[in-house]
Amino acid sequence: MAINSEWRFSPDILWSPHHADRFVIYDSELSLYRIGAVGTSEAKAGSLPLSEKTAATLLAINSDTPYMKCVAWYPKHEPECLLAVGQANGRVVLTSLGQSHNSKCKDLMGKEFVPKHARQCNTLAWNPVDSNWLAAGLDKHRADFSVLIWDISSKYSPEAVPAEKLRLSGDTDSGTVVTKPLYELGQNDACLSLCWLPRDHPKLLLAGMHRNLAIFDLRNTSQKTFVNTKAVQGVAVDPHFPERVASFFEGQVAIWDLRRFEKPAFTLPEQTKPLTKVAWCPTRTGLLATLTRDANVVRLYDMQHAPTGPVGSDESEPTVIERGVQPGGGADGVISSFAWHPSAQNRMVVVAPNRAMSDFTVFERISLAWSSTTDLVWACGRHLYECAEDARDGVAEKDIATKMRERAQSRYGHDTVQVWRNHLLAGGNDPQIRSLWYTLHYILYFLLNIVTGSMWMFS
């Protein structure tokens, strides 16, 4: 997921990585919701309707963390509902929206990670493997570092922070303040976006700096791989292909292949308004969603069809199918942000500037196939559906093609000895066919008698 690093007054949405029915809305405060079916115990009285079938119930509100710039949800199950909040002054605060009895959670609540110089925190990212590591991207301050990696288990060292700094910060409990990061990266540049790369080892960090995308290897921080580009306002790694990354600048989205990092593999059609968010679908291969400022449509780009040529070559022309979905809701239908559901297929929740929400499913393009036996088959997402005629008698009138096939298989019309029995080969339930074959039977019977009588007379 990638979000524009400009100051955000409108609300954003974040799904829980552990609970499929919980998400957070944040702007000036944090609000935890639980989503459930309408009419169930999860959707209590006073719930907010999200669709015809689902509603959201407010579980908790946290207003203790002002000047929120970005939020990241702790990736492990415990502590539950642990959130890292990046503030406009560069501080990162750990807070919670749940009542966890875990002692680790109690020790972490209210813990602050303070940079050397105050400046805006643009983005946060938890390490998905070593969950104690939290990366923060900050604005530029002279020659200071803008990428700080904090260890949330770090202890406070009194000699590390001047007393004057603690007094100005207003922290009465100095044991909750950490000022020495585990790693300092990205000197002389602002960090607008970052994410961890789930590749061979958990120590690769991709950061969108001022004029370049940089890959930092924490095993050797003196070296980095970078490429000059303006597309640094947001970065997002494809969860199905760790080598594929999307980044954006203004209205342009670039798709990168980290195996050939010299230039973008391709770029998507430029949009007229600045982008605010880009996110890969976690349940569908190669589906990227983008949102522009003041838009009422989420643009989808289907990139599941691989290029025919070698990666990065001139003859490589990937097939990208573009379409838009309009979930509605909110003032004038404007969408402030969106979030893919982490496990439900192609499901998305959008939020409007007035915090109105909508829950909907992005339906796939349907591919139809009709067999020679009149069975209809179509694919939708991960499912394959088959529609066949009910073989039970009297359910519905069968199609004429089905009747013809069944009669041919039963050798209908081939009984020349007892002609009347052919109506049984046709199913025996059609009075017109039965009348036809009985009539033919009697006609042939009388003709046979006439011919036989004539032959007897002449003999």
Automatic annotation (TrEMBL):
GO biological process: cellular response to amino acid starvation; positive regulation of TORC1 signaling
Coiled-coil portions: none
SMART domains in UniProt: WD40
GO (cellular component) term, any one: lysosomal membrane
Cellular compartments annotated: Lysosome membrane
Transmembrane annotation, as ranges: 436-458
Presence of the UniProt keyword Metal-binding in the record: yes
Record bears the keyword Metal-binding: yes
GO MF annotations in UniProt: zinc ion binding
SUPFAM superfamilies: WD40 repeat-like (SSF50978)
Alphabetical list of InterPro entries matching this protein: MIOS/Sea4, WD40/YVTN_repeat-like_dom_sf, WD40_repeat_dom_sf, WD40_rpt
The entry's keywords: Lysosome, Membrane, Metal-binding, Repeat, Transmembrane, Transmembrane helix, WD repeat, Zinc, Zinc-finger
Protein family according to the UniProt entry: Belongs to the WD repeat mio family.
Entries under PANTHER family matching the protein: GATOR COMPLEX PROTEIN MIOS (PTHR16453:SF9), WD40 DOMAIN-CONTAINING PROTEIN MIO FAMILY MEMBER (PTHR16453)
Protein name: GATOR complex protein MIOS
